[in-house]
Amino acid sequence: MTAPAKDTVVPPRTGTAVPGGEPRRFAFGSTVAVLAALLVVSMTAGTAIGSVHVPAGQVWGIVSHAVGLEWSQATWSTARETIVLDVRAPRVLLGAVTGAGLALIGTALQALVRNPLAEPYLLGVSSGASLGAVAVIVFGVNLFGNLSLSAAAFAGALLTLFLVYTTARTGGRITSTRLVLSGVAYASVLTALMNVLLLTGERGNEARAVLAWTLGGLGGVRWATLWLPGTALLLGLGVLLLQARSLNLLMAGEEAATTMGLDVARFRARTFVLLSLLTGVLVAAAGPIGFVGLMTPHVVRLFVGGDHRRLLPTAALGGAVFLVWADIAARTVAAPMEIPVGVLTALTGGPFFLWLMRRNARRTTDGGPA
Question: What is the mean pLDDT of residues 142-166?
């Protein structure tokens, strides 16, 4: 038997395989196609459903007229056109972008720290980004113009991620317990500081709006502000796809990755900066929305396996679909009152986190990897 070539990367085993041991290629294409179709249906539903119901046919008619494709007669009112184009469409797009971005961040973080519980919300990264954003709002800082909020959120996310990683890493290893406890500790401190800013800030009339924002929400978005999270998502997805092989290597362990020629420390540092940038932009746009980055990677791994060349785009589509439907539920469950979408994702993700932690503890007890 000949040994594999030095540069050969054996991707993690998928749940579906052919007799030769290779993952079945059609599973990835089929999953992407289904998720893409489901995303189109979800975004259509998100634009149609609300206090004023707009039929799906009218939604597509209004959108087609807006982009210059007049394939149907305009049978809708001006009010419905305004609702679709100026209120719901930007909100649905932000939901899709935010869900996809959070899923990408969670997928990459779980590989970087080799921990299935890693996620920006649980690790306190979202809390750090929120503190930076709230500081800008409360003190009225406008150093970078319209980008001040995103810049402050990015700085807070990067600093928090560095602190959590440094605290949890002891003796060259990171365990699930240390990582989660470090994240919870920093999140608690940062949330307390954020509350102090809200209570003592001179802009007391804005405290309620900021508090609602800290629970996560997609309302109030406008077309003019969508370009930044959209650009950040495309940048993040492109860079992570180029680094998919390195993420695969890290899942095999630091020693194995180093043997295969990966500079682990430098790669982690660069990727942490990228993920912090993406987290900061998304938190500035939609507030801290938890557990999307935790649940989505684990769900899509059941269909495409652990190879990040397949996992990253699939997780992005899955996260987009999930958050669009979570926002639909947030708008309709207690209508006419709107529930912050971050509350619904926490209600869904909390039990999932407990189940995942219990499963991870059983594997560790049985002698498997932590």
Answer: 88
